[in-house]
């Protein structure tokens, strides 16, 4: 008993510290705006678009980006509003849209009045893991070749820097030919799509195919597997001063398992410029569960 009485305060500290850590990692979610687009016409489906604000302490202040992963969503009538087959959303930088996060659900019936949503907020905090920031020295000096980086190799990420001609050759490999169109038809039939839906999908693929124009002078182009780009949050081109060069935008084109990312620096980068790549590592992520009741408009 004496031993327990002596250890009592210490045990209390052991219980308190994990509880405090959980509290520091908790992120609150508040509804900012709800838009109910109830559409029903051929292949078009309505959607319930939700914008939320995140509330939290130091864990949120240290985050570079965030996203909302919905696990379950039902209206007050019991209708499922979550499409489990939908792909995960990208992380959104915290400086975008005043830090709000948008996500979409299936459109509810007109007589539904509210929706209950369960999920997690996932934060990307590169400061938690030094391995999440990789610098590739003089990356632009060698084109049409894999980036030379022990850190990328350790993360099992393989990227190639493409010249303009390399980009053109890469696009030719994924050109929408008769075999590719036949594959789209076969996949559509396999999943029970109608002939009209299949032809619409082929039309969309042709439209995307026609958008693959030659990149502008000074563009930085990286090629790799889609799965690798899914683990990359940001790619920055560094100037002679070692600071990131501002970009007017970036594009990610995906064909099957392959992806090509094109960066458009505002100023032409030096011929031997370095790249800085932020990786979405496990240690750099913080998750916080949430439940939310959303009144429907």
Give a brief rundown of this model.
By secondary structure, the chain is α+β, with helices and mostly antiparallel strands. It has helices at residues 2-24, 58-61, 150-154, 164-173, 178-190, 195-210, 226-229; strands at residues 28-41, 44-55, 65-75, 92-93, 101-106, 114-124, 133-136, 145-146, 159-162, 220-225, 232-238, 247-255, 258-265, 274-279, 285-295.
What does this protein look like?
With 297 residues, this protein is an alpha+beta fold. The chain has two domains: 2-127 and 284-295, Immunoglobulin-like; 130-279, no CATH class. Helices cover 25% and strands 38% of the residues. The protein is built from seven helices and 15 strands. Strands 8-9-10-13-12 form a five-stranded antiparallel sheet. Strands 4-3-6-15 form a four-stranded antiparallel sheet, with no helix packed on it. Helix 5 (178-190) runs antiparallel to helix 6.
Draw up the topology in text:
Elements: H1 2-24, E1 28-41, E2 44-55, H2 58-61, E3 65-75, E4 92-93, E5 101-106, E6 114-124, E7 133-136, E8 145-146, H3 150-154, E9 159-162, H4 164-173, H5 178-190, H6 195-210, E10 220-225, H7 226-229, E11 232-238, E12 247-255, E13 258-265, E14 274-279, E15 285-295
Key descriptive features of the protein:
2 domains, globular, 297 residues, alpha+beta, disordered N terminus, 25% helix, five-stranded antiparallel beta sheet, Immunoglobulin-like, four-stranded antiparallel beta sheet
């Amino acid at each position: 008993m004496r031993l327990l009485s002596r250890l009592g305060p210490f045990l209390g500290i052991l219980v308190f510290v994990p509880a405090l850590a959980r509290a520091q990692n908790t992120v609150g979610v508040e509804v900012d705006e709800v838009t109910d687009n109830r559409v029903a016409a051929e292949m078009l489906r309505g959607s319930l678009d939700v914008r939320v604000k995140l509330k939290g302490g130091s864990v949120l202040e240290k985050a570079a980006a965030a996203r909302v992963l919905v696990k379950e969503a039902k209206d007050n009538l019991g209708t499922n509003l979550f499409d489990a087959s939908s792909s995960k959303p990208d992380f959104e930088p915290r400086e975008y849209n005043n830090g709000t996060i948008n996500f979409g659900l299936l459109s509810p019936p007109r007589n539904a009045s509210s929706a209950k949503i369960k999920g997690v907020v996932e934060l990307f905090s590169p400061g938690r893991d030094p391995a999440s920031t990789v610098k590739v020295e003089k990356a632009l000096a060698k084109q049409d070749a894999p980036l030379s980086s022990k850190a990328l190799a350790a993360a099992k990420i393989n990227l190639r820097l493409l010249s303009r001609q390399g980009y053109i050759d890469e696009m030719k490999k994924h050109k929408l030919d008769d075999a590719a169109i036949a594959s789209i038809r076969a996949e559509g039939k396999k999943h029970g799509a109608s002939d009209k839906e299949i032809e619409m999908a082929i039309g969309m693929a042709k439209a995307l195919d026609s958008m693959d124009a030659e990149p502008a002078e000074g563009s930085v182009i990286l090629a790799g597997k889609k799965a690798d780009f899914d683990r990359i949050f940001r790619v920055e081109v560094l100037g002679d001063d070692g600071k990131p060069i501002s970009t007017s935008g970036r594009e990610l084109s995906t064909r099957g398992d392959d992806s090509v990312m094109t960066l458009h620096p505002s100023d032409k980068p030096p011929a031997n410029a370095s790249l800085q790549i932020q990786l979405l590592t496990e240690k750099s992520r913080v998750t916080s569960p949430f439940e939310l009741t959303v009144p429907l408009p």
